[in-house]
Amino acid sequence: MVLSIPIFSGFATQSRVRQAIYNRESARDVLEQNRRALVRSTRNAFHSVLSGIASVEANKAAVVSSKSSLDATQAGYEVGTQTIVDVLLAQQTLFLSQSAYSQARYTLLLNRLLLAYDGGKLGYPQLQEINALLQ
Q: Where would you find this protein in the cell (predicted)?
């Protein structure tokens, strides 16, 4: 019977232990980097939602103002104080305001989805809510 016990294995065990420690530290660093990126992304999405709400409200007011301007211009055209060019320009302003309003709403909805996703709250109820807002 022969008993073989390696007394010295060329620092292989110590090297494997050091490598395992380095791997653990590297994994911790990657985890922390991902956590910070998620926090930053969530914060940015939150601020985008807040500014999107303000943008939607401002564009909504611009649509109301453009509609009032168009109505006044059409009334002026009917009594002869405005030209057809003035009416067409007022219509163009209204259409541009409506387009900006639609774009602001769309951007707000996308930012809300991104915020829900980053927060881990994106699910079927949130998608139903967004779908209802698109109707």
A: Cell outer membrane
